[in-house]
Structure formats: C-alpha cells, structure tokens
Amino acid sequence: MSEMNDQTTPGSAAPLNDSEIRDALPEDLNAAGFVGPYLFPNNNRRRIPAYLYWAISAICLLIWLLRRGSNPVLINQGVVIAAIVLALIGLYSFIAGWNLKIDESDALVAATKQVGFPVGHASAQMGWRGLLSRPTWRILLYSADDPPETRGLVLVDGVDGSVVEWFVEENPENWDELDS
C-alpha cells in the first residue's frame, strides 16, 4: 500500500516520479486564453457586510429589549455593547464602500494627460488610501521611445478621476545589454 502523500496517475497504483509531476493552473485561472476587457470589481461591494452588521446589531438590540427577568445570565449589558460595536463597524464598512466610477482605462487617460509625454507601456493597479479606504489607481507609465527614456507614476482617484499625486523622471534602467 502506498503512502498518503504519494502522487499517482489516475487508475494506477504506481507513484509518479519527480520528472512526471507538472504544475498547471486550472482553466478558470489561466489568463493566457482570456480575450476581452477585464471588469474590475466595484468597491461598493463593501456595503453588503455593512447591511449584515446592522441586521445583527438590530437583532442583538431586540433580544436585549425583550429579555425576561431582572437578572438574566446570557442576555446582559454585553449584548447592548455588541449591538453598538456592530452598528459602528457597519457604519465604517458602509462609508468605506466607495462607488468606483473610474475604470483603469479612464485612469490611464488621466495619467497620460498629466505626464505630458507619449506613453508606450503602462500598468494599472488598484490601491486604497486613507482611513476611509478611498480607491486609487496607481498608474506606472513608460515613454513610447525604444528604449523608454522617461517613466512616471500617477495616482488617480477612483471616485472622481482627479490626479492625487504624480512623479516623472528619466528612466534610470540600463538597456545597453539588451541591444543585440
């Protein structure tokens, strides 16, 4: 009988050797075959837990108000404190659930206007800033030269599309080794 951690081929009891084991991504995670625009999930999904926190808070408060007897063991002031804490967490979750109005294409256009040079390669990443987790696109761009002479980093607000911060510099990377 083989050990539990041995890998075997389907329908076979013989363990595989190291040269036969291959890692592969599941089809639904393999981006190589993906065609079409990618829709970044909206940040306002954070409001769903807010509604759940508020519902649980209301249930806790209702249970505390309907308690029987003068000195119950399980339904005490802790239930009221839990209701208040859950209501506050729900409020924060609701406020932090900004509606993402600017997608990565709009952010790239705003970043291109800000840096003032023709853009070649660019990359967009979603980040959040501040205590209220305001969505912000981080756009890294390179000039269209070959090799790129200039690069820049632009932070674009995901709610109103304004440029929060930006930085442009000469590209410090050395491309001489790649000229062949």
What does this protein look like?
- The protein is α+β, with helices and mostly antiparallel strands and 180 residues long.
- The protein has 2 domains: 43-95; 104-178, Roll (Nuclear Transport Factor 2, Chain: A), CATH 3.10.450.
- It contains 3 helices and 4 strands.
- It has helices at residues 47-65, 77-95, 104-115, and strands spanning 119-129, 134-143, 150-157, 163-170.
- It has a 4-stranded antiparallel sheet, covered by helices on one side.
- Helix 1 runs antiparallel to helix 2.
Overview features:
21% strand, Nuclear Transport Factor 2, Chain: A, alpha+beta, 180 residues, four-stranded antiparallel beta sheet
Biggest sheet, open or closed, and with what strands and sense?
4 strands, antiparallel
Give the CATH level 1 class of the largest domain. Alpha Beta
Distance between the termini: 57 Å
Strand order of the largest sheet: 1-2-3-4
How is the CATH topology of the largest domain named?
A: Nuclear Transport Factor 2, Chain: A
Strand content: 15-25%
- Helix % is 25-40%
Low-confidence stretches: 1-6
Query: How would you state the average pLDDT, rounded?
Result: 82
What is the element string, with H for helices and E for strands?
HHHEEEE
Number of strands: 4
- With helices defined by DSSP (H or I, 4 residues minimum), what is the helix count? 3
What is the alpha-carbon Rg in Å? 27 Å
Count of separate structural domains: 2
CATH A-level architecture of the largest domain: Roll
From the spread of the alpha carbons, the general shape counts as flat
